[in-house]
Design goal:
- By secondary structure, the chain is an alpha+beta fold.
- The chain has two domains: about 5-50 and about 165-300, no CATH class; about 55-135, no CATH class.
- Helix content is about 70%, strand content about 10%.
- Strands 2-3-1-4 form a four-stranded antiparallel beta sheet.
- The longest helix has about 45 residues, at about 160-200.
- The model is unreliable at about 1-5 (pLDDT under 50).
């Protein structure tokens, strides 16, 4: 084949109707891919934040003493609180001990009880927020026994039960998201495969003429690869343009709910960089899929 012939696209690989269909379909695939990819990365970030925030602290609660005399009950509760504070400050591995004031407790309880409830009038336990050192190795059984020696009204929560439940929930979400990603990739490959095969059937006469003129299967496959690479890239750009506003809206909605768990599901600059490269990934994926589809199909036809 001479150079002039090599520069031309003798096969009408971009039929108007077929190209429009592939652009629309691929753009939808890329939109779903980017949104679900962002979900997977956000879940990973969320899990890391959960483990850092929850495993790095424990909570100790002291139930108020409730007898007949309110003044004596308050004094006994305060005495027990001071003894627990002193005990926890001397525990190896404890970085900081902070008593939550009434405002902090009220803020924690408001989502459950509402704004109209007077939290101060309720027998709310005294709460200690215990921050642990990074290399802390706490024996929770011994710690519980030590607290019970001070007062049976003291109990400890290391958040491990809640964390395990949250991790299972996040794992389920991630598995679902990865399944959707896999389905999008596979369905996209099948779309390219059947589109390219259909185009080959329509243009078989032209392909036979090119074979007679000396064109190799590789030359024909590269023409299709270039065409589908173009579709893949611009579809990736279109899908990304629609996906970014959707991701931002979901993020803002998550923050507006006031949920600290959802606030941990953030996206870093590196995550955004990965999403910005999806058009290039779409280009390469479409190019390779179309090339090998045409090559294998031509080998079977010959």
């Amino acid at each position: 084949m001479n150079r002039e012939l090599m520069r031309k696209n003798e096969i009408p690989t971009e039929d108007e109707d077929t190209s429009l269909f592939m652009y629309v379909l691929s753009s939808i695939y890329m939109y779903l891919f980017v949104v679900v990819l962002a979900m997977v990365m956000a879940i990973n970030t969320m899990v890391v934040n959960w483990e850092k925030d929850i495993t790095g602290s424990i909570t100790v609660q002291i139930i108020p003493v409730e007898n007949e005399n309110k003044r004596i009950d308050t004094e006994k509760t305060q005495e027990q609180l001071n003894r627990v504070l002193q005990f926890m400050e001397n525990v190896s591995g404890v970085k900081n001990v902070q008593l939550l004031d009434s405002k902090a407790i009220e803020k924690l309880m408001t989502p459950w009880l509402g704004n109209k409830v007077d939290v101060n009038a309720l027998p709310i336990p005294q709460l200690l927020d215990i921050q642990l050192k990074n290399d802390a190795n706490i024996n929770y059984d011994e710690l519980t026994i030590g607290l019970h020696k001070i007062t049976p009204n003291a109990s400890i929560d290391n958040h491990r039960l809640w964390l395990n439940r949250l991790l299972k929930f996040a794992s389920s979400l991630k598995t679902l998201a990865l399944s959707v990603l896999f389905m999008v990739v596979v369905i996209c490959a099948f779309s390219i495969y059947y589109s390219a095969r259909t185009s080959l059937g329509i243009n078989m006469n032209t392909i036979e003429i090119l074979h007679i003129m000396g064109a190799q299967d590789d030359y024909i496959a590269r023409q299709y690869a270039r065409s589908y690479a173009k579709i893949g890239f611009f579809s990736g750009v279109i899908g990304l343009m629609f996906a970014i506003p959707s991701i931002i809206l979901v993020r803002k909605y998550g923050i507006s709910t006031g949920s600290g768990l959802l606030n941990g599901a953030g996206l870093s600059g590196f995550h955004w960089f990965i999403m910005m490269t999806t058009p290039v990934l779409s280009l390469g994926y479409s190019l390779i899929t179309a090339y090998y589809t045409v090559r294998k199909s031509l080998e079977k036809m010959c």
